[in-house]
Each structure stands twice: as C-alpha cells, then as structure tokens.
Amino acid sequence: MYRFRQLWKFSTLQFHKGVSENQNVSQNVVLRGVTLKGRYNDLPNMLFFPEACDPVENWIPFFSDPANKILDYRNVHILSPRNFGTSDKHYSFDVEDLANDVVRYMYYNKITMATLAGHGFGAKVALAAGCYHPERTTGVFCIDYSPMDQRYHEAFTEFRGFIKKLSEINTKEMTKSQIEAFLKDNIECVKWRSIFSDNLVKLPSGQWDWKFALKFLNDNISFNKADSLAFWPVKAGLYTGRTHFAFPEFSRWVHLGTNTLPMLKVCPQVRGFGHDVHSVQGDNNTLNHWIYEFKDQSFVFASRFTKFLSMYDGVHLLLKDRTEVGKEFVPSIIYSKKDPNHVYSDYSPAHYYHNWRFNNVYKNLDIQNK
Q1: What is the pLDDT of residues 172-214, one digit of tens each?
Q2: What is the Cα Rg of the chain in Å?
Q3: What mean pLDDT is predicted for residues 217-234?
C-alpha cells in the first residue's frame, strides 16, 4: 500500500463512477476502470486493458511511476473488459462485441482516436478493437500476447482449471475466511490466488461474491468455442496500423520459436523480430507473465512503451518514424492518373489532431485563414 501512495501523488487519478450491472443487450455494456491524467495538457489518450480477472489497481504503479515516463506522452485509461472488475456483464465474449465496447467508451468520453494496449486477454481486446475500428486507433501495443489459438497452452489450461475450482463453491454461503482457506488449498499459483482474493466483493446483503462474471467465464473457457478467451478468430480480420508486441523471454503464453508468426499474419505492418516484436530478457520464472511484479522487467517494458508512443504511434505508415513528420515527402504513385501529361510530385502525409471529432481546432483555423 505504501508503494501505491508514493506513486499516485505524481498524477491525477480518477476511478470511474458506477457499479457493474448485468446487461441483457450487448450494446448496453459500459466499461469502467481508472483514468490517470498525463503530466501535460492536451495529451492524446491510451486505453489499456489488463489480463482476465486482473484488477486495474495492479497496473496503477506501472503507469504512475515517473521513471517509466508513460504519463509524459499519454493520458492512460486502465479499463476492465466486459465481465471483469466494475465493467458491466454480458454472456457474450464475441470478439466484435469486445471491440465495440471500446469504441462506445471512446464516444461517451469524447475520445476521437486513441492508442490501444493490453496485457494477455486485454491485448486481445485492444487488437480486436484495432481490427474492427482502425479509424479510431492510432496504434496497438500488446504485452505477452499473440493472436492465435492458445486454448491448449499450459498456462491457459492451468487458468481454466482454477476457474473450474471456483465454480464448485457458493461464496454467498461462506465467510471470507472460508473462501480464503479454499483458495489456499485449491489454487496452487500464488499470483492467481492473490488475484482471486482481490476480486472478492462484499454485497449489501453481507454475502461475498466475485467481481468477475464467474458463470459466463466458466462457460466460455470450458468449451472450445470460437469466442473463447484464448482463441483469435479469423473473422476479426487484419489490423493494418502500427503495432508493437513485447513479451518475456521465457513466456508461457508466447513461445518465441513459433508464436511470433501470427503477429505478422494479423498485423501486416509489423516489420519483424527486433523491430516491432521484442522478447524481454529475464529469468525462466513461471510468474514472468505479470511483468509489473518485477522491477527490472517492468522498466524494460515501460521503455518499449515510451519508444512506441514517442516515435511510432500515430505516425503515417509511409514514414519511418516521427522524426520524418513534416520533413520527408512521399512520391505520388506513378500512372495513378489517366492524364498522360500529368506531372507527378511529392506530398507530405497528413497527420490529424488526436481529438478532432470533439474539438473545434480545425473550424477555428479555417476562420482565421479567412
């Protein structure tokens, strides 16, 4: 708790109002979490989605740490995906529904375009939103995730077993100490045990329940369906914008030898390992998925974040990086005009103000020019 207090003072932190509700209509789902205001005025926004069941509070120190410098470049919205945390609940985990949740949040909060990022399942949500709504996405950053079928990965089968164990008890008939004892006896992984413990919430009736939708979650991961948390469906298509993938060297979720190929398949602008795909060196620790738990590893991931945000995110794809904005010109495509006498020339790729939809910056500029 001391660490949280030390880091929170460096930024304006605001938890979103409202409580999680069960929705019958998918379009009514509202995402909630916490917003960290960046250190400068008029910064672009980044939406970040944690791993399944992981509370948003666990990521606050990572983004708030002044040494990581992420808040120098973006306002950060740490959001729980549907069925987790304080976000609304709905039985569907369809990838298009997950993507639409993101854009709906952006519209309600008057965000025109944003960087989308996530960890594990949260990265799937971010990438899906980029695929379905590229016009609202400046870039995608994925931590320890690859768009592929992970249903048979050891790490996921372990998680599936833990959720099945939780489904065997009725927390409303147990005291908190009894639930904690059950977790200690049945959840072998100390990190998942801690996460499940953090997800306990006391109802107005005095009974205990989970913050996440346990029944929906268990139904989803118990069957090998196309909308499984660990499966990337082909129907999501491609994301043609700027993308960055980073994962621990000995990741249990992204196997370096083979699992990087789907990154290039789904995101054709990815230039390959060492450019947009990075493995972060570290120990062969089974807990390395939780990068914020390790100081050295956390700093390296934050450095990859700031590099992407400062040099590549939102930059026109025909340019190398941000240093070429306004300096390098792109030649017109030869023979793109029917007129044989047309003189082809260079042009400077356009870059728009990040919140043009909800701002009069261009309207006011036109008035001044007149």
Answers
A1: 999 999 999 999 999 999 999 999 999 999 999 999 999 999 9
A2: 22
A3: 90
CB neighbours of residue 92 within 10 Å: 16
What sections of 121-213 are H helices per DSSP?
121-132, 154-166, 176-186, 190-198
Per the CB < 8 A criterion, the answer to whether 37 and 9 are in contact is no
Token readout for 114 is 């944003």
Angle at 31 between CA 110 and CA 74, to 5 degrees: 50
The Cα 119–Cα 291 span in angstroms is 9
Kindly tell me the burial class for residue 20, based on how many C-beta atoms sit within 10 Å of its own C-beta (0-12, 13-18, 19 or more).
buried
Dist CA 217 CA 229 (whole Å): 9
- d(CA 229, CA 145) in angstroms, rounded, equals 12
Q: Which pLDDT band, with edges at 50, 70 and 90, does 352 fall under?
A: confident
Q: What is the pTM of this model?
A: 0.92
CA 244/CA 271 separation, integer angstroms: 10
Element housing 264 (H / E): helix 261-266
The rounded distance, in Å, linking the Cα atoms of 22 and 88 is 6
State both tokens at 103: 């854009």
What is the 8-class DSSP label of residue 67? T
Packing angle of the helix pair 154-166, 214-222 (nearest 10 deg): 140
Q: How far apart are CA 178 and CA 28, in angstroms?
A: 35
CA torsion angle 35 51 215 220 (round to 10): 130
How many CB atoms lie under 10 A from the CB of residue 350? 6
> 142 burial class (0-12, 13-18, 19+ CB within 10 angstroms)?
buried
Q: Is the dihedral of CA 230, 234, 236, 237 positive or negative?
A: positive
Distances (CA, A) of 265 to 94, 243, 271: 21, 12, 11
Calpha distance 217→225 (Å, rounded): 12
Q: Is 273 helix (H, G, I), strand (E, B) or coil?
A: strand
- C-alpha span between 134 and 104 (Å, rounded): 14
Cβ atoms of 47 and 104 closer than 8 Å: no
The pLDDT, as a whole number, for residue 69 is 93
